[in-house]
Design a protein that fits this description.
With 110 residues, this protein is mainly α. Helix content is 79%, strand content 0%. The relative contact order is 0.08.
Length: 110
């Protein structure tokens, strides 16, 4: 059975580590806000993420028959249109997903 001193030491060490890990982001926040690299990434990442999602969506798309591509192409157009209109990645992704699900359900390539 551990002694009360041992248990108190374990709690103290755990508390110090937890507090330190929670305080660390706030300690480095000031220098990060002044970073020109971070400001550049903040401007470019949403576009890069949308591009990666679009390419990932189209990775298995085969050009024949063309009618099978309609849901994916229209969903991609919806994502681009929504993103240009709202500049909100969440709305773009959810809207394009909804368009793709509806078209995939009801569009029959024949």
């Amino acid at each position: 059975m551990p002694t009360p001193l041992y248990l108190a030491a374990v709690v103290a060490v755990s508390t110090a580590i937890t507090w330190g890990l929670r305080a660390l982001p706030f300690a480095v926040l000031g220098p990060l806000r002044r970073s020109s690299v971070l400001q550049f990434l903040a401007l470019q990442m949403p576009t890069g993420i949308m591009l990666i999602l679009a390419l990932y969506t189209l990775r298995d798309l085969r050009p024949t028959p063309w009618t099978a591509m309609v849901p994916a192409v229209l969903a991609l157009a919806a994502a681009v249109g929504l993103h240009l209109k709202t500049r909100n990645a969440v709305i773009s992704v959810l809207g394009a997903t909804a368009v793709h699900v509806v078209l995939s359900t009801f569009w029959h390539a024949g």
